[in-house]
Structures are given as C-alpha cells and as structure tokens.
Amino acid sequence: MGLRERIVEAAEQVIQMKGLARSTTKEIARVAECSEGSLYNNFESKEDVFLHVLRGQLKNLMQVLTALPERKGTRTVQENLEEVGIAALEDFYHSMPLMASIFSDPGLLLRHRKGFISRNEGPHRANEAVEAYLCEEQLLGRMKENIDPKAAADMLLGSCFQYAFQLRFMDGELGEERKRFVHNILDTLFQGLAAKKDTL
Fold first, then answer.
1. Residue 128 and residue 158 in one domain
2. What is the pLDDT of residues 4-25, one digit of tens each?
3. Is 53 domain-assigned?
4. Is this entry keyworded Repeat (predicted)?
C-alpha cells in the first residue's frame, strides 16, 4: 500500500472515531505512520484528504453510474435501475457517518461546498447521471413520454438515502433486505414509468 492510500485509510479511521471536525492532520499522520509534512506533500489540506475518503466510500455507486450510459437499450430499465439503487443504498449506508460529520462545522461545510463547486462536483451529480440515462431510455420508447426523468431519479436515490439514514440512526444492519427494498421501490415507481408491459 502506497503512502497516499495509507493516509486515506488512516483518515477514515480517525474520522470514524472522532468525527470530521475533531480530526486533525497530526492524528491522521500518526495513524498513517508518517509525518505531517508527508501528508501535506500528498494532499492540500484535511478537507482534501476527506474528499478522497468520501470518494472511496462511494466507489460502487460511481462505477455503476459511469457504466450507466452503456446500459441504455439493454436488459430492462428496471434491472438497470435496480443495479443503481442497490449500489447507492450500500454506499449511502457505509458513508453516512462521514457525510453526516461534515454538517457539524458550518465553516467546514462552506469550504467543502466551495470546493465541490470549483471542481464541478457534488451529490447532485448522481441524480443527474440517472436522469440523463432515463432521458435516453425515453427517446428509445422504453419509458412514457410524460414521465419526468429528474423526478424519477430523485425518487429512487432519495428513497435509498433516506432508508440508509433510518438504518444508521436505528443502529440497524444492511442485509439482504436491501435488494427487496430497491425492488419494491422500483416496482411501485414502474407502475407509472414503463411505456409497455414488455419493457419491464
């Protein structure tokens, strides 16, 4: 494992234990067994380290969303969205403590928000990717023309996020029911989405 990977892994451990606001680069460097100078040689700031940690937490969802444009016209729309939903639910569940910690410090949140804007990144990008995919499926006639792709994307990812929050808050485990949850959400959603029965 390289130094950058060690620092990111150490940062995740420290943030999980102390929360983002109370984590320091000194403590992260200690856990990574390197100097603070080495940390700053690899990352611009603590916020930069946190961003890399968070990206790692959402890697499954990012992989699925990256492959989503190639899925248009293949399998069924519902199967493609189930893949998105399951990855989103798993990643939201595992990253929830890290995502929540950013709201504990308004100044930190502001700096992160500015950083996301400057890099043209942010949580809305996942919704936009699903929306773009659904627009393509609409053009192929596999979804009703009067359906709002943005609303459909928001309902799917919003439901997954809220369910992950509930589980974390109640100290629940994310087991096999995650597949059933996503399937049920999409079954309900697809009563109004699908253009024809045979496209399900």
1. yes
2. 999 999 998 898 888 777 889 9
3. no
4. no
Residues 42 and 132 in one domain: no
Q: Are 12 and 94 in contact (CB under 8 A)?
A: no
Query: In terms of domains, do 101 and 181 share one?
Result: yes
| Residue 175's pLDDT band (cuts 50, 70, 90) | confident
Task: Say yes or no: 65 and 157 in one domain.
Answer: yes
Range of the domain at 18: 3-46
How far is the C-alpha of 125 from the C-alpha of 72, rounded, in Å? 18
Tell me, yes or no, whether 77 and 109 share the same domain: yes
CA distance 108 to 21: 8
193 confidence band (pLDDT: 50, 70, 90):
low
Which of the four pLDDT bands, split at 50, 70 and 90, describes residue 200? Answer: very low
Structure tokens at 53: 């940690």
Give bridge partners of residue 107 from the DSSP assignment.
none
Chain centre distance of CA 41? 28
Contact 101, 15 (CB under 8 A): yes
**Residues above pLDDT 90, as percent of the chain:** 56
Residue 152 CB-density burial (10 A; 0-12 exposed, 13-18 middle, 19+ buried)? buried
- Helical ranges in 35-105 per DSSP H: 36-42, 46-57, 59-71, 77-101
